[in-house]
Design goal:
- About 25% of the residues lie in helices and about 35% in strands.
- The protein is of the alpha+beta class.
- It has one domain.
- Strands 3-2-1-4-5-6 form a six-stranded mixed beta sheet, covered by helices on one side.
């Protein structure tokens, strides 16, 4: 599974697909998140399931999305199986 991260960088936000490459920079977190989801959808269509992790300025994980070939139109929010069974 490929990993895309959205994280703060200076005054803006960075989208990283590969930690060894330069990030794609954005002024707003929402623009970075939208770009990450678009990239995740493209990778899923090409046969590469992708996880997107979105981090807050303080470093906490704000959200996770899974983009898979089965869900091409949307990157679905990830929910822990433990959480799902506890609420069912």
């Amino acid at each position: 599974m490929r990993l895309i991260s959205v994280e703060p960088l200076g005054e803006g936000w960075a989208v990283r697909l590969d930690p060894r490459r330069d990030p794609i920079l954005f002024q707003s977190g929402s623009s970075a998140e939208d770009a990450a989801k678009t990239l995740g959808q493209k990778l899923a269509r090409a046969g590469y399931p992708t996880e997107i992790r979105i981090f807050l300025r303080g470093g906490d994980l704000a959200g996770r999305f899974i983009c898979s070939g089965a869900e091409l139109s949307l990157c679905s929010p990830w929910t822990s199986p433990t959480f799902m069974s506890a609420t069912a």
